[in-house]
Amino acid sequence: MPKVTIILTCYNKPETVGKAIESVINQTFQDWELLIMNDNSNLKTTKIIKSYLNDQRIHYYNSEIKDGDRYKTTRYATLINEAISLSTGKYLSYLTDDSEYLPERLEVMSEYLDTHPDIHIVYSKQITRKLNENHTLIFQSTRQTKGVLRKAANLVDHCSVMHTRKAMEVVKEKYNNYWDDDPKHWHNADAVAWARLNEFYLFHPLEKTLDISYKTPYSFQTLNLYIPEKIPDGVIIKGLSPDVYLVDKQKRRKITEGMFDKLKYKKGKIIKIPDPFVFKYPLGSPIDDTILKNGKIPNQLLIKSSNSPNIYYIQNGKKRMIVNAQAMKRYHFKHSDIVLLDPVVIQRLPDGPPLGMKIMSHTKLPDGALFTCKGKFYISENNCLYPIYYKCINRLKYSMNDIVKLHQHELDYFKQGPLITWNHLKK
Ligand code: UDP
Ligand code: MG
Asked: Residue 120: its pLDDT value, please?
């Protein structure tokens, strides 16, 4: 049985995963097993991983997770739990596909645990490097150790930790599993795991820098920042692949490149989010040439035909006539956003309630508009106003220039939904 088990979780990081694996192979201490937990990565990534599998100490596991199931648990925690139960080492150590160990990492840590049998958890300093889109270094710092920790949560990254198997078995006795993989912990499942460990053990510092962690624009934490649990309809999203989707009635409709321009969507409005949250929205009908025949015109579009001055707003698959120029102005609809469609296509669309300037008790608000009243912000959907946390407004790329001002008595006409906020803030 090897002394140390290293658990490497991988998902679509072809640029860095090879370096992570090599950093284990190049350790000064060689009595280890490496469990590569591939979360069903794309072919490019999987090929790179597979090129290392002839080493007998490297074991490979593919979760075969379906994309539509990715959001259901914190994936890396699920993989780590799976790995711990497959592992045989006396000590457990974690690695992610965008990090690397410095050559002494395993030697220093395992030796310390060997010579201090009462200590179950050690951690070390970490170099963090921030890279831009082109993988050029833009910032580097060192995460220092902070003494013996009773509360390591959010202070120690999991790539800087080694602990005994025993420590995790004690956690499992209490909680029935090792790491908590509840999806609400996507952003910091390691902090939650440390809180469990800290109930029984302290984290002991080793005054050496033993790993490097990279943050890229594609790191989960970067992509996840201020993304609310439910992305409102009308927002345009993109994951790691080049595909771009409109969130429409809580489904994701792929927008083809030609249609993107034709329907006057703007590249600047695309928000990049983590893959698991892209796949959370079930696939809807595509936004391609077929919409002109099947009438599935995307909601929240401004349209007009060449043979009539009428302008319509698409809502619930119906066309709502915008009654006059003041109504256009009231909701900050722009003439430059109007999409010209064939009169036949427009005619076939059923009529919805017209959209006037005045906001009254019977008014049906346009979906997906940003409102403000007394310093608070709201997004409309199904005639309900959802308060939204201001950081989420920017993150979802709503434009503050298009904000619709409401008086209190106007606001009072409408029901209010739950606050749209960032999950992490609720904890
Ligand atoms: N990960 C995963 N499945 C996914 C997404 C991410 O297993 O669907 C893993 C990823 O391979 C990495 C870890 O989760 O080992 C953390 O992801 P990332 O490094 O992107 O996030 P960070 O916390 O560094 O921002
Ligand atoms: Mg990372």
From this structure: 98
pLDDT along the chain (427 residues), means of 10: 97 95 98 98 98 98 97 97 98 97 98 98 97 92 98 97 98 98 92 98 98 92 92 97 97 97 97 96 96 94 94 98 97 96 95 96 96 98 96 96 96 97 68
Q: What share of the chain is helix, strand, coil (3-state, %, to 5)?
A: 30, 30, 40
225 CB burial (10 A radius; 0-12, 13-18, 19+): middle
Four-point Cα dihedral 386, 391, 393, 394, nearest 10 = 180
User: Taking the domain 4-222, which CATH number applies?
Assistant: 3.90.550.10
114: number of Cβ within 10 Å? 11
Ligand 1 centroid–CA 350 distance in Å is: 45
pTM: 0.92
Classified as helix, coil or strand, 77 is helix
Q: Indicate which atom in ligand 1 lies nearest the CA of residue 214.
A: 24
Q: Are 93 and 3 in contact (CB under 8 A)?
A: no
Nearest ligand by distance to the CA of 75: 1
Q: What is the pLDDT of residue 135?
A: 85
* Residue spans per domain, the chain: 4-222, 370-426
Instruction: Look at residue 427 in the predicted model and tell me its pLDDT.
Output: 43
Separation of 350 CA from ligand 2 center, angstroms? 48
Q: Which residues line ligand 1 (CB under 6 A)?
A: 9-11, 39, 70, 75-76, 79, 96-98, 219-221, 275-276
**Ligand with the closest atom to the CA of 187:** 1
Catalytic residue list: 190
Ligand 2 centroid, distance to 187 Cα (angstroms): 11
Q: What span, in angstroms and rounded, lies between the C-alpha atoms of 268 and 266?
A: 5
